[in-house]
Task: inverse folding
């Protein structure tokens, strides 16, 4: 099953949050196929560079970088050829929907559901869900 894993879910996994950790584990175990694009990759790198976010992390910077490298190795790199502009509340999140549509993802997994679920364009077969919801649906 193809998914787009928002940056906040990966960060949650680094901080030891259960459902986020389960989603990333399912990707690493190849039970989920995460899609990755240029904009999402840049966002991952940017956020991982913010050391203040990880004051409570059980992983140090080197371990977080290694986890990202392993995660990226499981990702299906996807080019976005068409900008749909779903007009999310946070325009900076439009790339998540565009990546999901370009790669045929069934889910966008995010902790920021309020902004992502408010898209004006609707795409059949694409749902934005919390990590906890995906864990229940997939029995992760």
Result:
């Amino acid at each position: 099953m193809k998914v787009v894993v928002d940056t906040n879910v990966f960060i949650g996994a680094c901080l030891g949050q259960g459902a986020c950790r389960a989603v990333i584990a399912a990707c690493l175990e190849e039970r989920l196929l995460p899609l990755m694009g240029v904009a999402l990759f840049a966002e991952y790198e940017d956020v991982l560079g913010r050391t203040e976010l990880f004051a409570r992390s059980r992983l140090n910077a080197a371990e977080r970088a290694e986890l990202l490298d392993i995660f990226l190795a499981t990702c299906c790199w996807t080019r976005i050829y068409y900008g749909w502009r779903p007009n999310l509340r946070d325009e900076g999140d439009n790339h998540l929907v565009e990546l999901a549509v370009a790669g045929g993802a069934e889910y966008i997994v995010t902790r920021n559901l309020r902004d992502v679920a408010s898209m004006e364009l609707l795409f059949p077969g694409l749902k934005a869900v919390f990590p906890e919801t995906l864990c229940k649906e997939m029995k992760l």
About this structure: The domain at 2-138 is CATH 3.40.50.1010 (Rossmann fold). Residues 41 and 114 are 22 Å apart (CA to CA). Strands lie at 2-5, 33-36, 76-77, 107-109, 127-129. The chain has one domain: 2-138.
